[in-house]
Amino acid sequence: MKINEIFQEYAPEYIERFGDLIPFEHRKVIDAMINCRTESSGTLIYQCEQCGKTHIVYRSCGNRHCPNCQHHKTHQWLTKQVDRQLPGHHFMITFTVPQKLRRFIRSHQHTCCGAMFKASSETMKKLAADEKYIGGDLPGFLGVLHTWGRQLVYHPHIHYMVPGGALSKKDDSWHPSRIDFYLPVKAMSRIFKAKFRDEMSKSNLLSSIPQDVWDQDWVVNSQAIGAGAHSIKYLSRYVFKVAISNSRIIKVKDRDVFFKYKKPGSNRWRTMVLNVMEFMRRFLQHVLPSGFMKVRYYGFLSPGASVPLEKIKALIELSFGFEIT
What we know:
The protein is α+β, with helices and mostly antiparallel strands. It has helices spanning about 5-20, 25-35, 70-85, 100-105, 110-130, 185-200, 210-215, 230-240, 275-285, 310-320, and strands at about 45, 55-60, 90-95, 140-150, 155-165, 165-170, 175, 220-225, 250-255, 255-260, 270-275, 295-300. The strands form 4 sheets. A 5-stranded antiparallel sheet has the order 8-3-5-4-12, with helices on both faces. Helix 1 packs antiparallel against helix 2 and helix 5 (about 110-130) packs across helix 6 (about 185-200).
């Protein structure tokens, strides 16, 4: 059974049970998923030029949280990014927050997730400019917000794809990082935590956060992921991913949803069973606020960058002394 079919069958009961407690954004997603690829979403009519036969296709809802509607978007995004790809090595850098902070972030998603983007991006910009590491004042990277773990628990984190180096405006040259090292994760962790705390203070939310959140280490992970198109394809699996895909749903039986997952570091599939109401609640808690941008571009990868990508590419190739293909 597909996730949309689960909502089509059980959403009326979910709405009746929780009523006014359901946020407006959740109601929009429920309605979209119920009506996706049904007559309610409208129809497209195609006629074969050879045989004249008419084909009727129901329209997709297009909602970014609907698993039926993401494959096409992923393909379009990947095609565009491959055209913009840069040579050289890349990294995947992931910023996470402590478990005790997750519920608070879920209650203040727009402010807190925005603060995560700001704190993490400024952390990388600060360290990339340091001569000890890269010495470039214009790095470039793109980030994708995820809010889920493999069992659908709320676990906000940001994945960044980062070309291995930065442009220095001082000498107008490309400063490459090491192939196996971009920036120190311990330093990124400390700065990220401090900057996020500053953002909470500016938003008058700091007093609502337990003190021990600031006393523990925050986790930042950095992983070398190769060069060029390979790194973009690696990230594309994250960009338009939703909390759970249809392929992971095993069955629905006696009001229980059976789905498979893998523990971190393991390739063995395991099965989790949730009551259908709890399954829907967990899925919906990952609905983002309306208008919130879950994919963001920074530095020379941003749409309004002052330095053209073609120049960045040429400088990267010049730094290696030959054309990179």
